Protein 1
Amino acid sequence: MVLALTLILGGLALAGMPIVSDAGPRQPASGEANAARPFLYRWSLQAEGSARVERSDDGGSTWHGVAAVPERVAEVTAVRGFESRAYARGEDAIWISEDGGESWSRSAELPSRPLALAVTSEKADSVFVGTESMGLLRSNDRGASWQPVDSADFSRNHVGALAVTALAINPDDEQVVYAATATWLGTSTARLTPLGISVSTDGGREWFSLASMPLGAPAITSLRTVAGAPATVVAPDAEGLHTYRAALSDELLVALEDTRPVRRTAAARLVAMTGDRAATQELLRRITDTDPIAGQQIVEAAARLDSNAVAEPLRSLLASDDEMLQARAAYGLGLIGDAGSVEPLAKVLEDGNPMTARYAAEALAAIRSPEAIEALIGPLTMDNGSAARHATLVGLEQAGRPAIGPLAAALSGDDPRLRAGAAEALGWLRPVEATAALSQALSDPDRGVRIQAAWALGELATDDARGALSLAASSSDDEATRAAAESAIARTAGTSTSGASTNLLGRLAETPVLRWTLIALALLLAGALLIIRPEAQLRPHGG
């Protein structure tokens, strides 16, 4: 019996042992964050025309070879945030690896030789390829198909085949993409002549000229982004580094009047990136744009350029009879945190439809002044199904810590609807410091307040909250209050048990196959001993 117990305990102990060795290199599972030490890649060209690829799993301290790419490679780019996926630009094709370079597959056929490659993070999941004669291509399915990026401004003033010789994506805002363009000129011998640098602010749909290149300048083969400056790009060449920055231009102002809303939206974003306050009035003249997306982007651009200049026009717009314009004005006032607009925003919150109420609540949450928080708390007295009450709960949650004190104070207000609403809001916020006030609310004269306080304490799920709920469950004179407290206690206990079970199952699921084998052998042997031993005890002595 002792031996059997020893084997059982020894087998279970193996589950907690550290892994001595695992067969094969570790590969992250799909979606696993590898940000701490992302895979790095380097390559070298081989005499037979392939590219030897190496990968580092420890930030560049050590390297080991992975699968070769079966053609000469000009660059290897990993997907930021999921470096197991990498793209290699060959002489004639794009190659893709989904397993950290352990294997490579060829993308869909390209219509022209690739000259540049840019890859977004896994979230955006886009791949851009600049080609020798067919302009810019984009894939949203990891190279399974390619679509041409067609924009008049992207390829304007060129004759002959359009080349895209360099690409870059701003890591701080992946909607901002840069491209260096060129065209083939010449009579008997074609020569690649640079055209300029273009920028897109909407992920490659619309393009604007950032810089034009003089005739005879060398083609741009590399672009580098600048941290904290989304409208700036650097192009190195043999003479040094050249910096290009977007500036306010007639082209941009004309684009704000374009018939296509997508063009107006992209132009407004770029205007804001220039940082030129001279454009503020031009933007304000267009804040009533008929398209909701373009109009909101125009307001955002104006607010970012000059918050002082836009406050009064936005307050005037808030008084409009048009609900879309009201929502747009509330959005802008929230962006600039205009404390002077609390009163009209509160009126829109209480009187508006679901859309305007939501924007007004979010604006008050962004302002975060005591007056703004009080304006948010007011609609808690409204019916549960009202748009204002729903919006105010969302706004209070967004306001966060500045709302906790006023909500706790509201638990002792005169209106039971306000007290119940404050308890509900605190339940969504889950502030530990409100435990005492919510515990006191379990003795509120109004049943609805008591029930809501019990629910909120269940959301906090702290020891003090459980203690208050246990007391209410055992001593309250009201059956509904006892039931609410018991339900809250059960909810917190269920969460705790479920979490422990999930944790145990997760640990067992992660146990390597070798360790599971040892556990199984130990348990089988122990079971055999337990079966054999009793039989031996029952066997008669002496034969």
Protein 2
Amino acid sequence: MPELTQTTHSSSPADRAEAAEPNEWLETDGLGGFACGTSTDVPARRYHGLLVAPLPDTNVRHLFVGDLRERIVTASGESVALGPDTLVRFELCPWPRWRHRAGEVEVTRELVQVRGRHTTLVRYRVVSDEPVVLDLRPGLACREAGALTFQNDVLDPTATLIDSGIRCRPYASLPPVSITAASDSEWRFSARPQWRTGIEFATDLARGYDGHEDRFSPGSFEVDVQDRATITLACTIDDEVPEPEALWQEATSSRESAEDRVQRCAQHADDFLYRGPGGRLGVIAGFPWFGEWGRDTFIALPGLTLARGRLEQCAEVLSGAGEYLADGLLPNIFGASKADSHYGSVDASLWFARAVLLYDRAGGDRERLTREYLPALVEIATEYSEGTASRVAALHIAADDDMLIHAGAPELNPTWMDAKSTTGAVTPRHGYPVEICALWYSLLAHLVELHKRAGDKAGAKHWKAAAKTAGKAFVARFWSDDRGYLADTWRPNHEIDTSVRPNMVLAAAMELTPLKRNQRRATLERARRDLLTPFGLRTLAPSDPAYEGRYAGDAEARDRAYHQGTVWPWLLGFYCEAWLRVEPKRRTQLRGLWDRLLADLDHGGLDHVAEVYDGDPPHHRGGTFAQAWSTAELLRAIALIEGRTV
């Protein structure tokens, strides 16, 4: 169980960022909202806060309640702020808990988010031999989660008293914030509005962003403590104002501490599943700043659901996403509707097709596959083949005479390696990217199976011919016996990018493939030698002149390194799958592959896997502290090693 027994202040923003980043916690509400922060309780990012939630009927998240500033006030008037200097212990399981000591006074604070509500509960237990007052001052941000706010005259400072608490609406364009209290001791709210200025976010500053803001507080909740006292605050933007104590019992009654790291990881996989506008089930790509991204959703979905035996949940996500299908494309960024979604990805639809295949292999409902998913897959394959629909044409997607699809342009990155700098695409992969063509072949081959199962001989014959032609072209273009691994990208005039990248592993891991076993094995061996690290696969071999071994610095520097050597944990799942395609009886040799990542659950994003790590040792983590496909592929790889079909 992650703990903190001692905390210290650092002397610079960069030092403070290093101290805060290894210990970040996350609570989610299952509706796209969350609370997150550091184990030291010092906010290090603009996203750290107690109540982050999307606006009604949108996916635009706002940070409403930033923090609660706590003080112990003695009978003589002495005031002690609770913070890093008073913190003696932090525990994560089964929910975040901080223990403070201020002189002879002990204060325990616990925090949970309520699933299905935009509500955060914070409970305090105070033990003191002398009468003291616990002073709790909420800090309101009421801004977009990725923005900053500053002292201004537009804000409405009014705090309206309601039953058991207050309601504030600092800005008329945003929902009101209600904070209610329940306590076994006397408490009161004192209206003492003020701005707290110059709040510093060390991690943001270290990443090259602005890292200061101001927050408004309407006043304080004051609790009289004679010997001991408990008070629970509920912060919400819901119309229904909750009764804190009853809601606390409801929210925590089913929470249990997981016994080992794998269980903890599986338990927190639910953080990424959420109900969007209209109740549709979707996947949040990562916390704290990602939303629902198509590519990430369909890569992560099998690990988040099928690896945990949740076939119906997998189907629900696939079916909900299918409603967004347009011209054979699925969004790379989901909005509340098709109209406000972004259709800028060539591979979201192809990863969707692979998720359908894995759902099929895991024993999914065959009637649903034929009735619902087969028509969607036919639409994708048809539109990609013809390349005439407006959305598809805008991405330069079409099949050539050899039935392989090309996509993208020099100014348009069509794959997951889509980072851009001020000079353009960092990793240009327009043309025929290897994993795109591998996913395309897998789709064609699966269509043959599905049409045969549906009794459609003509359909099966049509797609079988397409798959046969595409398969021959795939091997001819990407494989070379002399080279001994798959090329990364092929372009007309036989312009071939032979950079050693993990996309060849994605291709080698596919079940339905034209590759021979020895071709898979050789590709995997090259990846093992040049790309494999304890935290995932590098995105480029260190021997390449373009290799960047550190993912650090400002946004420009990080974008240059993002896919030029940086390690991505999710790729380990495909490495594991490719290994088992080649050596299915030697699965025990993979059991140590995830040890370092599992150990990292005690650091960084607690019980979560980070987005990326440095390519060079000691592989410092970076990016988001909780990434859906990192967690998902860890769980899927473990399931594969255990012999389960995922």
